[in-house]
Design brief:
single chain, alpha/beta, D-Maltodextrin-Binding Protein, domain 2, 17% strand
């Protein structure tokens, strides 16, 4: 069997994600017939059927499911190698730190100040992204280390806990629940979070029969949109205490929820990293977190 090419894996991954040759071809910017031929050639090369095709649908075979999983890892590794080589070859390499804006437990300014004093320190570039974007940034080589909340998929990553921070509920100031100083998750039944999930489930997947379960893909909202929707009573939110302190707003009230899990903030980095700059950042961050007063 000859070696697989990156192009072949990319074609297959796109078809496997779309489960539709027309949409996959559109994503790839090519016509459908050559894409179909490329997938058939790949199947012949591997000696297995990767896709079940009927006139109505395309599904993955067990072999296809295996290749999809491994192809993602392989393509991430190729992209990461190019990204890291490009960064290492710069006249002034940098340390790229991925995080979601404000999700640093209030630690970032102290970490950066202390890190600059380290002998192995590099200039820091902050790679800001939305929720869930930090792990892909690490795997694809766009970041060297990340600050992110648990849980996350740590396959291929090392991690270190930084802090545990209480979360509050953010409600419209006119919400009747604001008359109560303390709440429980059960009190939030019927309310939804910014991603559309039920608030009383605290981020756990909704049941298959719930209305939210069939409501479509999660919404992607920035913080200003979230605050605007809270103020008009469309949603509620569970920000950590540090975020609530940074963003007082007259139209929003913050309340304690007795059985709401705290935010667990962690550091993560690729397992194969041998960078002295990454190691210095990890030591610095854990030291600053250990010395920080409890929230």
């Amino acid at each position: 069997m000859s070696d697989l090419e990156v192009r072949q894996l990319r074609y297959f991954m796109t078809v496997a994600e779309e489960l539709h040759f027309g949409r996959a071809a559109e994503r790839l910017g090519m016509a459908q017939p050559p894409l179909s031929r490329a997938i058939r050639d790949l199947e012949r090369q591997l000696g297995v059927q990767l896709l079940e095709r009927t006139t109505r649908q395309v599904t993955l075979t067990p072999a296809g499911q295996t290749l999809l999983r491994d192809a993602r890892i392989a393509l991430d590794a190729v992209v990461a190698a190019a990204e890291r080589a490009s960064n290492a070859g710069k006249a002034t390499p940098v340390l790229r730190v991925a995080l979601k804006a404000d999700y640093d437990g209030g630690l970032l300014p102290g970490i950066l100040a202390a890190y600059r004093t380290q002998e192995a320190a590099l200039p820091v570039d902050l790679v800001l992204g939305g929720r869930g974007e930090q792990v892909p940034a690490l795997r694809q080589g766009r970041a060297d280390v990340a600050l992110l909340p648990r849980p996350f998929d740590d396959q291929g990553l090392d991690s270190e806990p930084l802090l545990s921070e209480p979360r509050l509920v953010a409600l419209a100031a006119t919400d009747p629940l604001t008359d109560r100083p303390h709440l429980n998750l059960a009190d939030l039944h019927g309310r939804v979070l910014p991603d559309g999930s039920p608030a009383d489930q605290d981020g756990r997947p909704p049941s298959p029969t719930s209305k939210t379960a069939s409501a479509g893909p999660p919404r992607r909202l920035d913080m200003s949109q979230i605050f605007s929707l809270i103020e008009v009573g469309s949603i509620i939110w569970f920000p950590p205490v540090s975020v609530a302190r940074r963003h007082p707003r007259p139209g929003i009230a913050y309340r304690t929820v007795e059985d709401l899990r705290p935010l667990e903030l962690a550091l993560a980095w690729p397992q194969h990293s041998r960078s002295p700059a990454v190691a210095a950042f990890i030591r610095t961050a854990t030291g600053v977190a250990a010395a920080a007063p409890a929230a």
